[in-house]
From TrEMBL:
Pfam families per record: TrkH (PF02386)
Name assigned to this protein: Trk family potassium uptake protein
Organism name: Paenibacillus zeisoli
InterPro entries to which the protein is assigned, alphabetical: Cat_transpt, TrkH
GO molecular function, a single term: potassium:chloride symporter activity
GO CC term, one of those recorded: plasma membrane
Principal location listed in the UniProt entry: membrane
């Protein structure tokens, strides 16, 4: 709401007039939920003041409210209470409260350091195409936007990064930011060898699952997009081999919930668009700047299916057995997500004048806080903008969080029902 009020100010808009409330609310929600869906061109319709407001909303939304609150507490040397530590534990998906403040310090240090390095490289690259001052400003904005998987850009005309489809520097830096922001801060801490195990560098089960599934999705996604779009005259066909590979790789990475694109999403073949919907639904990893059902949830679902096919009673990943409660939670998250996406898609199909695939794409992009669009966002009705805003909010907050907050309090069960049997399949 604060972002909405600031973006409505005439000083935030190049037109010199107040932005409509619904458009300011949509933009503020998209920035805070690090989604990237836009109803106004960030690089053209907003002034530097408005763009800085959007960038700050992205930073707060990406790192998380509790992380930023802890930063201010440390700056002003305020003691972090037990209640705050418990909230931080939940916010970072940690099983213990031990070392939580130390982890937050690492999160802030890593984030700012990665963004600073990326901003420097961006600035040097873009200094060849624009004035140095503008290049530095663009570098800082896009480093914050891409690391936090927001996907907002300043190049105007809703082009995102299509101008740099075969540019190795922009591609590599952007993909690095997207992946590091999407794997989660706990994994980054493990990779630096500064995790909870101080005596020996060792990856946790969580980190192994996140890294292996992320790598698998990127490789599979690149191959699928390359094959489907190889002969598409509107995407990969006009490009050289380097451009084809960079374009396929980037579009495989960006559904990690980043929202930036180097190929025209609306020009992709329907098979590719539907495949990207699946990647957006899976999303990033827990404790990251991304959304979706998360890579760990998807891994558990696939593992549970394979275990059932093999006739095994337990799910084992990297020689660790997972509790049934983890599997139940993964199924719950997935079913909640499917229910939300199906419901919103059905409603928008009745209220919006667009194809079913574009509506499904937009809804999944909003839920996964991705920001990719087939061009529907700017054409949404007022009702559609409100519904997509709520979907972005639900996707960023987390479905289980909403369920726990809105559902009845858990009570101790005093008895068990007799076991029943059903025919399945």
């Amino acid at each position: 709401m604060l972002g909405t009020l600031l973006l409505m100010l005439p000083i935030s808009n190049t037109s010199g007039r107040s932005l409509e409330f619904i458009n300011a609310l949509f933009t503020s929600t998209s920035a805070t939920c690090v989604t990237g869906l836009v109803v106004r061109d960030t690089g053209i319709d907003f002034t530097r003041f408005g763009q800085v407001v959007i960038m700050l909303l992205i930073q707060v939304g990406g790192l998380g409210f509790m992380t930023m609150a802890t930063l201010f507490a440390m700056v002003f040397k305020r003691k972090i209470s037990l209640k705050d530590r418990l909230l931080l534990q939940e916010a970072m998906n940690q099983s213990t409260m031990e070392g939580i403040v130390r982890l937050i310090r690492k999160v802030l240090t890593y984030s700012l350091l990665i963004e600073l390095c990326a901003a420097l490289i961006y600035s040097v690259r873009w200094a060849f195409d624009m004035p140095v001052g503008q290049a530095v400003y663009f570098g800082i904005f896009h480093a914050v936007s891409m690391f936090n998987n927001a996907g907002f850009d300043l190049f105007g005309e809703y082009r995102s990064l299509t101008l740099f489809v075969d540019d190795p520097v922009v591609n590599l830096v952007t993909m690095f930011l997207i992946v590091t922001g999407g794997i989660g801060f706990v994994v980054i801490s493990d990779l630096t060898g500064l995790g909870s195990n101080r005596n020996k560098w060792k990856l946790s089960l969580h980190s192994k699952v996140v890294l292996s599934m992320t790598a698998a999705l990127i490789v599979i996604g690149t191959l699928v997009i390359f094959v489907f779009e190889f002969t598409n005259s509107k995407t990969l066909a006009p490009l050289g081999w380097g451009g084809k590979i960079w374009g396929s790789l980037f579009q495989s990475v960006t559904p990690r919930t980043a929202g930036a694109n180097t190929l025209d999403i609306g020009a992709l073949r329907q098979a590719t668009q539907f495949f990207i919907i699946i990647l957006m639904f899976i999303g990033a990893s827990p404790g990251s700047t991304g959304g979706g059902i998360k890579t760990t949830t998807f891994t558990i679902l696939v593992g549970a299916v394979l275990a059932m096919i093999r006739g095994r009673e337990e799910l084992v990943l990297f020689r660790y057995r997972l509790a049934q409660e983890r599997i139940h939670k993964a199924i719950t998250v997935t079913m909640f997500a499917l229910f939300l996406i199906i419901t919103v898609t059905m409603i928008l199909s009745a209220t919006e004048d667009a194809s079913f695939l574009s509506i499904l794409f937009e809804t999944t992009s909003a839920f996964g806080t991705v920001g990719l669009s087939m061009g529907l966002t700017a054409k949404l009705s007022v009702f559609g903008k409100v519904l997509i805003s709520l979907t972005m909010f639900a996707g960023r907050l987390g479905l289980l969080t909403l369920a726990y907050a809105l559902g009845p309090k858990k009570e101790k069960e005093l008895y068990r029902h007799p076991e029943g049997k059903m025919i399945i399949g």
